[in-house]
Design brief:
The structure holds three protein chains of three kinds. Chain A is α/β, with parallel strands linked by helices. Chain A contains nine helices and 19 strands. In chain A, the strands form four sheets. Chain A has an eight-stranded mixed beta sheet. The N and C termini of chain A lie far apart (44 Å). By secondary structure, chain B is of the alpha/beta class. Chain B contains 14 helices and 23 strands. A five-stranded parallel beta sheet of chain B has the order 3-2-1-7-20, with helices on one face. Chain B has a five-stranded parallel beta sheet with strand order 9-16-10-11-12. Chain B is globular. In chain C, strands 2-1-7-5-6 form a five-stranded mixed beta sheet, with helices on one face. In chain C, a hairpin with a 2-residue loop joins β1 and β2. Classes of the chains: A alpha/beta, B alpha/beta, C mainly beta. The interface between A and C is small, with 7 and 5 residues.
Chain lengths: 380, 445, 83
C-alpha cells in the first residue's frame, strides 16, 4: 500500500481494533506484524472482557465503554468470534468484606452488581464448593474468542480499503525533526505521518527504535486447559484474590483462581503472574498450584483431566495502567499498549480513545491518565 | 541410577546393556507387557527373528538391577539440580522417580493420512489391527483390506491371514521398483533378504497378492474404494474398483512421539523425510546433559536399528565402552533406514484424496473445508494460526494424528513450504499424558 | 486357559479373557463403534490401537475420556460410550 494515512504495528486485538476504528473514521490504514495475526499475547489469553476486576478509576471507565464497544464491533464485523455476555461470579473465600466494599464502589461507577448469598450463589454455580457462602454477580462480564476476533477485524479493515502485511519485522522507525515519517521493515519501507505502536509486550522495544522509551515489561501467565468435559462451570468464576493480584507489583509469583467453561466443552483455569522476563519455560509447580486452587473451588474438577497448558506474556506498565496516547518525544508516534491482562476487553475502547485523539476530537473520557507523558519525568 | 522410558526394542536393549555392568535401571513403560509396538505379543512374539525378542525379555526380567514399572504413563519430566525427575501416572495415582540419567526410547506410532471415511468404525491403522491381534487375540474384522506404504504392511497382512482373517486386498502405494534406488542398502543388510523371503512365503501360503500403485481413496459402510495413484500419490485417473471389507487398515510409515524429549528440552531437527526427530551425537546423547535418546525418536529406522541405538545408549550411560563393531553395525542399519525413507516417501498428492467434508482433525472434527476457510476467509498463513482458528490439534490427542497433515494442507493452500520450525513446534506439548486435576493439585509442594 | 472377566458396555454384558483391553473385548463381540463424537455425533471405533489417538475413549465407572485400547477390562467395570 502506497502512502497510508496511518500504520498500525501489531496485528493482535489492540492493533486490529485500532486499525478498524481508524478505517471507519475514513483513514487508509496499513497493519503490519512481524508474525501472523494474533501471534503475540492475543493468542495466549482467555478472551476476557471484564469490568468486575477493576477498581473505580480510569481503567474501569475505559473497560465499561470498551465492553459495550465489543458488542458494537460484533454488529459491525459480524458474529463470528463467539462473543457472549457470560457474566462473572466473584466468590469470597473467607472474609467477604473487601469484595462487598469493592462491589459497592463499582456499582456507584456504572458497574452492574448483584450480591449473592449462599443460595443464590449456588443457583448460579451449582458445582461450586458448598463452603462458599458469599459472592457478587457481574452480568456485564463477557467472553470472546480473541484470535478469531482479531482475524475478522483485520479482514474487515482490508475489505474497507486497508491492508495487512504479515511477517514484516520493523527494522527502523524513520524519525525526521522529532516526528515519524515512516518505517523500514523486512518487507519494505512504508511512509506515513501516523504510526500506532500496538506491539503489546514488545512495545518498549519498538519505542526505543524511535529513540523514545516506554517502560513496558512482561508478566508471565499460565493457563490450564482441560479435556472436553461436562458443563460444570456456567460463568467466569474467580475468587476475590484476583483483584489484589492484578494491582500488585510483587516480583514473586502470584496466583489467583479463575475458572471458566468454553463453547468447545473444555475448562480454562488460571491465573498466575510472574515477573520473570521472557522466560517461557514450563513450571509444573505453578500448574499444580492452579489445579489445586481450581479444585478447591469446584471439587468435581478433581476427576477432570488436564490436557494442555500454555503461557503468555502480559504487557504491563509500572502503574498497571495501559499506555494510550502520543509519544512524549516523537510526534506522530502513538502508543496503545501495556494493557496487561485486560488487552482483549480494553481493545475497542483504546481504539476509540486513540482515534479521537489522532483526529483531535473529544472522546468519551479524559485519556490523560493513560498518556505516555506520565513516564516522562524530568530526571535531575 | 538410569531411568529408561519405553520398553520396546530400543528401551529393552538400553536397559539390558546398562544393567550388564551393574547399573541400576528403572524401566518404565505405558503398556502392560514388554515389547512396545514392534514386539507385541500375548504369549509369544511371532514373526521374523522373534527369538531375539524373547532373549531380551528373559534377560530384562531376570536382571536384578532392572526394576520394571509397567502400566505407567509419564506425563512430565522436570530437572531438580543435577537430578531428573520423571512424573508418571499408574493405577490412578501419581508417582515419580528421580535419577541422574535418562534414556528416552519412546518409539513411534503409525502415520495416518485422511481420506473420505477414514474416521468411520472399521478404518484403523495397521498398528491397531496388529495390537488387537497380537496384544489381545482379537481379529478386528472378518474381511480386511491392508493398504498404505512400507514394509510394515507385510507382517500385518500375513499376521491377520495367519489368524484366520480374510485379507481381501493388500495395496502398496509405491512401485516395487523403488528398491532399485538403494542397492548399497540391500548389500549392507543381506539379512533383509531372508526377511523378504519369509514374508513372500507367507503371502503365497495365504494367496495374498500385493497390488502396487494403489491406495484406499474412500471407505463407506463396508465398501472400500481402491484407486490408482502416481508416484506422488495423486489420484491417477477416475477409474477405481470397489472391494467389500469391514476393516480397512491403512498405514503410511511412522512418526516418533517427541513429547517427552521436548519437555526435557532436547533439541530437534528435521529428518530427510520431513519428520521432526531428536538430534543426537554418535553416542546417542541428546542436546541435554545426561539424557540419551534411542530408537525411532532419533529417526524412523525399524527394530534392528532401535536395538543397536538402545544398546549404545545403555552402554554409554552406564560408562561402558562402545566397540567400533557395534558402531559399524549401527551404521549399516542407518544406511538401510535411509534407504527405507527413500523408497517409501509420502507423496503430497494425498491432499487430493479428501473432500471438503472429510475430517482432518479427528478429535475436534475439523474438516478440510474448515481449514480452507481459515486460510481463504480468515487469512491464516501458517499452520499455527490455522490451528488456533479452527481448533485443529487442540483435542484429546493434542495434534499427534493431524498436526503434520494440517501443516502440509495449509502449506499447499498458501503455496509455501512447511518450515522446519513449524515441524518442530507442532510436537511441543508440556503435558505428555492427561492427568486428573485432583492428582495434579495434590502433588503441589 | 485365562480367567474370564465380566463387565458391562452400555448396559450390555461383555465377557473377555483377563488381560484383554476393553476395546478388544467389545470389538470381539462384533460391535465396532465405541462412542459417538461430541459435535457431529459420528460413530468412532479404535483407530491407532496404542493410546495415541484417543478415538477409543469411553467412560469407565463415571470417569470420562479413558482410552479403552490401553485399559484392561476388570470385573464389574461399568463402561459407557463418551458423548
Amino acid at each position: 500500500m502506497q502512502n497510508p494515512d496511518a500504520i498500525v504495528i501489531g496485528a493482535g486485538i489492540v492493533g486490529a481494533s485500532s486499525a478498524l476504528s481508524l478505517t471507519n473514521a475514513g483513514l487508509k490504514v496499513l497493519v503490519i506484524d512481524r508474525g501472523a495475526v494474533s501471534s503475540g499475547t492475543t493468542g495466549a489469553g482467555e478472551g476476557n472482557i471484564l469490568v468486575s476486576d477493576k477498581d473505580p478509576g480510569p481503567e474501569l471507565t475505559l473497560a465499561l465503554r470498551s465492553r459495550d464497544l465489543w458488542f458494537e464491533m460484533q454488529e459491525d464485523v459480524g458474529d463470528s468470534f463467539e462473543l457472549e455476555a457470560k457474566g462473572g461470579v466473584v466468590v469470597a473465600r473467607l472474609d467477604d468484606g473487601p469484595l462487598m466494599k469493592l462491589a459497592a464502589e463499582q456499582s456507584e461507577h456504572g458497574v452492574t452488581t448483584e450480591k449473592l448469598n449462599q443460595s443464590s450463589l449456588h443457583e448460579l454455580e451449582p458445582f461450586l464448593h458448598p463452603e462458599f457462602h458469599s459472592g457478587v454477580f457481574y452480568p456485564q462480564d463477557a467472553q470472546c474468542q480473541p484470535m478469531l476476533a482479531a482475524a475478522q477485524v483485520i479482514r474487515t479493515v482490508i475489505a474497507r480499503g486497508g491492508a495487512f502485511i504479515s511477517q514484516a519485522k520493523v527494522t527502523r522507525i524513520i524519525v525526521e525533526n522529532s516526528a515519524v515519517a515512516g518505517i523500514e521493515t523486512t518487507q519494505g519501507i512504508f511512509k506515513a505521518p501516523i504510526i500506532i505502536n500496538a506491539t503489546g509486550t514488545w512495545a518498549g522495544e519498538l519505542a526505543q527504535m524511535a529513540g523514545s522509551d516506554l517502560p513496558i515489561a512482561p508478566r508471565k501467565g499460565f493457563i490450564l486447559v482441560t479435556e472436553p468435559t461436562g458443563k460444570y462451570v456456567f460463568h467466569k468464576v474467580y475468587d476475590s484474590d484476583y483483584v489484589t493480584n492484578v494491582a500488585s507489583s510483587d516480583a514473586d509469583l502470584q496466583t489467583s483462581t479463575v475458572v471458566e467453561g468454553t463453547r468447545s466443552g473444555t475448562i480454562l483455569i488460571g491465573a498466575s503472574r510472574e515477573r520473570i522476563g521472557f522466560d517461557g519455560s514450563m513450571n509444573y509447580e505453578i500448574l499444580r498450584r492452579l489445579a489445586a486452587q481450581a479444585t478447591s473451588l469446584f471439587p468435581i474438577l478433581r476427576d477432570v483431566q488436564l490436557l494442555r497448558a500454555y503461557r503468555g506474556f502480559r504487557p504491563y506498565a509500572p502503574d498497571h495502567l495501559p499506555v494510550i496516547g502520543e509519544d512524549a518525544k516523537v510526534r506522530g508516534l502513538w502508543h496503545s499498549a501495556g494493557h496487561e491482562g485486560a488487552g482483549i476487553g480494553l481493545a475497542p475502547g483504546s481504539a476509540a480513545l486513540i482515534t479521537d485523539a489522532i483526529l483531535g476530537r473529544q472522546s468519551f473520557m479524559d485519556g490523560s491518565p493513560f498518556s505516555p507523558h506520565r513516564f516522562a519525568k524530568v530526571s535531575v | 541410577m538410569i531411568i529408561v522410558i519405553g520398553a520396546g526394542p530400543a528401551g529393552l536393549a538400553a536397559a539390558e546393556a546398562a544393567a550388564r555392568n551393574g547399573s541400576d535401571v528403572a524401566l518404565i513403560d505405558s503398556a502392560s507387557r514388554l515389547g512396545g509396538q514392534y514386539w507385541r505379543h500375548r504369549l509369544t512374539v511371532s514373526g521374523f527373528h522373534s527369538n531375539r525378542a524373547d532373549e531380551l525379555f528373559a534377560k530384562v526380567r531376570s536382571a536384578q538391577s532392572i526394576t520394571y514399572i509397567s502400566d505407567a504413563s509419564v506425563w512430565s519430566i522436570e530437572r531438580e539440580g543435577q537430578l531428573i525427575r520423571v512424573n508418571y501416572l499408574q493405577g490412578g495415582a501419581e508417582s515419580s522417580l528421580t535419577a541422574e540419567k535418562l534414556i528416552l526410547a519412546t518409539g513411534a506410532y503409525d502415520r495416518s493420512l485422511p481420506f473420505p471415511g477414514w474416521d468411520q468404525p472399521g478404518s484403523m491403522t495397521p498398528g491397531a489391527a496388529q495390537a488387537l491381534l497380537k496384544g489381545h487375540g482379537v481379529l478386528a474384522g472378518q474381511k480386511v483390506v491392508v493398504a498404505g506404504t512400507g514394509p510394515f504392511l507385510l507382517p500385518v497382512a500375513t499376521g491377520l491371514a495367519q489368524a484366520g482373517a480374510n485379507v481381501v486386498g493388500l495395496y502398496e502405494a509405491h512401485s516395487p521398483l523403488r528398491w532399485l534406488l538403494s542397492p548399497k542398502a540391500l548389500l549392507l543388510n543381506i539379512s533383509k533378504f531372508g526377511e523378504l523371503i519369509y514374508y513372500a512365503r507367507l503371502l503365497r501360503r495365504y494367496s495374498l497378492t500385493p497390488q502396487f500403485g494403489r491406495v484406499v481413496s474412500r471407505f463407506d459402510q463396508g465398501r472400500v474404494t481402491i484407486s490408482r495413484v502416481n508416484s506422488s500419490f495423486a489420484l491417477k485417473d477416475m477409474k477405481s474398483e470397489n472391494v467389500e471389507a469391514d476393516v480397512v487398515a491403512v498405514g503410511w510409515g511412522f512418526l516418533p512421539d517427541l513429547t517427552l524429549g521436548g519437555i526435557a528440552g532436547c533439541k530437534q531437527r528435521v529428518d530427510s523425510d520431513g519428520t521432526a526427530v531428536f538430534a543426537v551425537d554418535a553416542n546417542q546423547l541428546s542436546s541435554q546433559p545426561n539424557i540419551w535418546i534411542a530408537g525411532e525418536a532419533t529417526g524412523i529406522g525399524g527394530a534392528d536399528l532401535s536395538l543397536l541405538e538402545g544398546e549404545i545408549a545403555g552402554l554409554v550411560a552406564s560408562g561402558q565402552k562402545v566397540t567400533s563393531h557395534l558402531r559399524r553395525k549401527r551404521g549399516a542399519k542407518q544406511v538401510f533406514a535411509d534407504a527405507l525413507k527413500r523408497s517409501y516417501p509420502i507423496g503430497d498428492g494425498w491432499r487430493s484424496w479428501s473432500q471438503k467434508s472429510t475430517a482432518i482433525c479427528r478429535c475436534e472434527e475439523v474438516t478440510l473445508g474448515d481449514i480452507e476457510e481459515s486460510v481463504v476467509e480468515l487469512g491464516a498463513e501458517d499452520s499455527r494460526t490455522a490451528k488456533l482458528f479452527t481448533r485443529a490439534g487442540m483435542g484429546l490427542c493434542q495434534g499427534r494424528v493431524c498436526s503434520r497433515n494440517v501443516a502440509e494442507i495449509v502449506a499447499g493452500l498458501t503455496k509455501c513450504s512447511v518450515t522446519d520450525e513449524e515441524r518442530i513446534a507442532s510436537s511441543n506439548r508440556p503435558i505428555a499424558a492427561p492427568i486428573a486435576l485432583g492428582l495434579l493439585g495434590d502433588g503441589k509442594k | 486357559m485365562s480367567e474370564m472377566v465380566s463387565f458391562t458396555f452400555n448396559g450390555t454384558d461383555v465377557k473377555c479373557e483377563q488381560g484383554q483391553s476393553i476395546a478388544a473385548a467389545v470389538i470381539n463381540t462384533g460391535t465396532l463403534a465405541l462412542r459417538t463424537t461430541r459435535f457431529g455425533e459420528e460413530p468412532r471405533s479404535i483407530f491407532c490401537g496404542i493410546g495415541i489417538c484417543f478415538d477409543c475413549v469411553v467412560v469407565i465407572d463415571g470417569v470420562a475420556n479413558q482410552r479403552s485400547c490401553l485399559i484392561a477390562a476388570k470385573p464389574g467395570m461399568k463402561v459407557e460410550s463418551s458423548s
